[in-house]
Amino acid sequence: MNKKSLITILAILFLPLLAFFGLTFNRDTSVIAEAGGKPQIIKFSSTMCLECKEVEKVFKEIMPKYGDKIVYTEIIVDSRNDMKNALIKKYNVTLVPTVIMLNSDGTQARRIEGAIPAEEMDECVKGLK
């Protein structure tokens, strides 16, 4: 086997690996909006989750009432890199959808796992201080 063949074989084997690691390296999604003394809602969801789509419809229905009084952040957890996300670890998220509601002082007021009706979600959001 000559040198040129060996280089070609190594390139075929290693270029896809380099491309994969280059595209997925250091993808941190743990950045959330600054709450600025306001209550905050953090929703963990997936694009392939049917319950997540239901929860999204609920939030689209109720959040316009609250305008800029509540900071709303959605974190999509579709890739393996997201499992290293600091917020997933911080709030111990093991399934989606999970909604974490924080009071204005940053304390966790409520945790909701799964979909709930819009009326119940609205009551939970109203209870934020």
Low-confidence stretches: 25-31
> Based on CA inertia axes, which overall geometry fits?
elongated
Largest sheet: 4 strands, mixed
Count of beta strands: 4
- Which class of the domain at 40-126 in CATH terms? Alpha Beta
Per CATH, the superfamily of the domain at 40-126 is Glutaredoxin
Count of helix runs? 4
> What strand line-up does the widest sheet have?
2-1-3-4
Portion of residues within helices? 25-40%
Residue fraction in strands: 15-25%
The ordered H/E elements are HEHEHEEH
Give the second-level CATH assignment, the architecture of the domain at 40-126.
Answer: 3-Layer(aba) Sandwich
Query: Rounded to an integer, what's the Rg over CA atoms?
Result: 21 Å
Class from helix and strand fractions: alpha+beta
The pLDDT mean sits at 83
Distance between the termini: 72 Å
Q: Within the CATH hierarchy, at the fold level, what is the topology of the domain at 40-126? A: Glutaredoxin
Features:
129 residues; alpha+beta; four-stranded mixed beta sheet; 4 strands; 18% strand; elongated
